Amino acid sequence: MLRKLYLSPLGYLISFVLNCLAVFHKPFMVYGFSNRVDRKFYKLTRIASNVKLINKEKIDIKNNVWIGYNCLLDGIGGIKIEEGVNIASHSCVYTHSSQNSIRILGSKFIEIPAENRPGYIIDNVTIGAYTFIGTSCVILSGTRIGKGCVIGAGSVLSGEFPDYSIVVGNPAKIVGDTRKTDASLYKSGVNFENYFDKEMVDEIKNNSANNS
Questions:
Q1: How far is it, in rounded angstroms, from Cα 62 to Cα 14?
Q2: Which residue among 5, 23, 25, 186 is the one 20 to 30 A from 172 at the CA level?
Q3: What is the pLDDT of residue 12?
């Protein structure tokens, strides 16, 4: 019935109305984040309107963070996102999993509180300052990502990744160091006046001078 109606001359009107609704319902960037963990308001943080924040009271997002469209942050086990982190669209951060407990508990799974379920996995996630998370990444419970890292698109992360790591793949592996990238950029004449880690700027300058 609806298909026939749309294919009739009324279809033009229906299409017009739907397109108008789409304009008003398009996702948009929301400026400012009220952090329930430290009870501060971060004016420079931007989070897309269709980002899903689960257990927001356990999600600690600092200033100057950018989180793109269609991301999901599961705060059940706690998430800490340091200053300046960028998370591209369609990425997910998980802090819990029932991958083992569903088999162990069977039909009784729903009857038992999450914290009492045998085999239930729950652990916090930390993402260090000015780390970039590419599109469609999955960050699993217990993952610790250092500062200044670059995570390639589509990567699946579990475990610990030190500062300045370049990480790609499923499962994710360290394939490089962003300090080498930044050293090349510095040599090419890029201005590092606003680089987020002032101590690292000195190291980059010194290494560049020694390698000249």
A1: 44
A2: 186
A3: 79
Contacts for 36 with CB less than 8 Å, ≥ 6 apart = 56, 57, 59
User: pLDDT tens for residues 46-65?
Assistant: 999 999 999 999 999 999 99
Measuring CA to CA, which residue among 122, 193, 123, 179 is closest to residue 147? 179
82 φ, ψ (degrees, to nearest 5): -75, 170
Ranges of beta strands (E only) in 22-149 are 29-35, 40-48, 52-54, 59-61, 66-67, 72-74, 79-81, 86-87, 92-93, 96-97, 121-122, 125-127, 132-133, 138-139, 144-145
Looking up tokens 């229906």, which residue turns up? 14
The length of the chain in residues reads 212
What pLDDT does 1 receive?
A: 62
| Burial class of residue 158 in the structure, from the number of CB atoms within 10 Å of its CB (0-12 exposed, 13-18 middle, 19+ buried) | middle
Q: Are strands 173-177 and 165-168 parallel, antiparallel or unpaired?
A: antiparallel
Residue 172 CA from chain centroid, whole number = 15
Task: Starting at the earlier edge strand, list the strands of the sheet with 125-127.
Answer: 59-61, 79-81, 125-127, 144-145, 160-161
Cα end-to-end span (Å), the chain: 74
Report the CATH superfamily, name and number, of domain 30-210.
Answer: Hexapeptide repeat proteins (2.160.10.10)
User: What does the alpha-carbon distance between residue 73 and residue 53 come to, in Å, rounded to a whole number?
Assistant: 5
More confident residue, 101 or 205: 101
